[in-house]
Amino acid sequence: MPKSFAEELEMLKAQGLHRRMRRIAGSQGSRVVVDGKEALLLCSNNYLGLADNPRLAEASMRAVERYGTSSGASRLVSGTMELHHLLEERIARFKGTGAALVFNSGYAANSGIIPALVGKGDVVFSDRLNHASIVDGSLLSRATMVRYPHNDTAALRRLLERHQTAGRRLIVTDGVFSMDGDMAPLRELAALKREFGALLMVDDAHGTGVLGATGRGSAELQGVMAEIDIHMGTLGKALGSFGAYAAASEEVIDYLANKARSFIFSTSLPPAVLAASLAAVDLIDSPEGAALRERLSRNTAFFRDGLRAAGFDTMGSETQIVPLFVGGAEETMAFTARLLEAGIFAQGIRPPTVPAGTCRLRCTLMATHGEEDLARAMALMVKIGKGMGVI
């Protein structure tokens, strides 16, 4: 007889794996009120601080006044508004592609794009640390999914050689890995895709707006923008809005609009979100955006380098995502609880998000963090880390 839901919940609690939602009052600034307590926010993906930017808020309000609160339908019925076209054209220019298509979330994008591109007889080559939405999209596709060791291009080459007689072959990777903060070796992946005639898709949810000279992401940083067949990214992280996109050739985007089920069978994004996203892309692609990226880069270096010097294992982080290795689930959540008591909100990450024994604090930096606040957080982390034997 299967266990009851209550029994399974008790098992999660006993293993230190039970989660609960914490309530944030107000906007996602660098300081928030969480469960009634003011705290420095160190676990938001609002990397550039745009989620409460006045320009985005004003754009949203104007859009509601002009277009109302809903698109009213899915895109292929009557839910394509002029704002959808304007945003997609802007994203395509930003990413340097022929066209773009917006989705309702990053999860919806990956679970729609991958099954549209590949199916039975095809092969998906997926980095072992890719986001869950890539894994689920690959499973939904019914293609053979082959997971290669993290960032191991030699292993990927062997797998590509083994599957040379397959139909369509898709290499898919995160641009920035969301739990480790390191980057995919896109130059090497691009070389392999050329050599083996594969497609290359990059989920740059955590790189878009943040990395590269103009914020175009990890592919810009590594000089391979034109080598990526499908650029996927989100609008709800550095861009401070909501939703996701695919940017590719006109042919591929037309194909996705006709084949991606998560796009076809969903009421489309509302006007307020579209307008905020459009304003965000414009802001990122401006001197103000460059200044925010520079501030974020300084904050990241200050925080990550300081904690490394104190003895923390930051797990190869090279971006604004800075994990601090703890190990066990209960120890990680005890660390998190002590931080929150002292006014620092940093989230603990446990299985199934990360493998057992690799639990960590996942700290994320924002351009709007002040150095004084970060220094205080670092001092507290060092004190707790030493007391718990983490460092």
Tell me what you see in this structure:
This protein has 391 residues and is of the alpha/beta class. 43% of the residues lie in helices and 17% in strands. The protein has helices spanning 5-14, 54-67, 82-95, 106-117, 132-141, 153-162, 186-196, 218-221, 250-259, 261-264, 271-284, 287-309, 329-341, 371-388; strands at residues 24-25, 31-34, 37-41, 99-103, 123-127, 144-148, 169-174, 199-203, 230-234, 244-248, 321-327, 344-345, 347-349, 359-364. The protein has a seven-stranded mixed beta sheet, sandwiched between helices. Helix 4 packs parallel to helix 5 (132-141) and helix 12 (287-309) runs parallel beside helix 14. It starts with a helix and ends with a helix. The model has no long low-confidence stretch (mean pLDDT 97).
Give a summary of the structure in a few sentences.
The chain has 391 residues and is of the alpha/beta class. Helix content is 43%, strand content 17%.
Any descriptors?
7-stranded mixed sheet, 14 helices, 43% helix, 391 residues, 4-stranded mixed sheet, alpha/beta, 14 strands
Report the total helices. Answer: 14
Assign the structural class, choosing from mainly alpha, mainly beta, alpha/beta, alpha+beta, or little secondary structure: alpha/beta
Share of β-strand residues: 15-25%
Globular, elongated, flat, extended or rod-shaped: what is the shape? globular
The overall average pLDDT, rounded, is: 97
H-E string? HEEEHHEHEHEHEHEHEEHHHHEHEEEH
Please list the strands of the largest sheet in the order they lie side by side.
4-10-9-8-7-5-6
C-alpha Rg (nearest Å): 21 Å
Percent helix:
40-55%
Detail the poorly predicted runs: none
Characterize the largest beta sheet: strand count, sense, and whether it forms a barrel. Answer: 7 strands, mixed
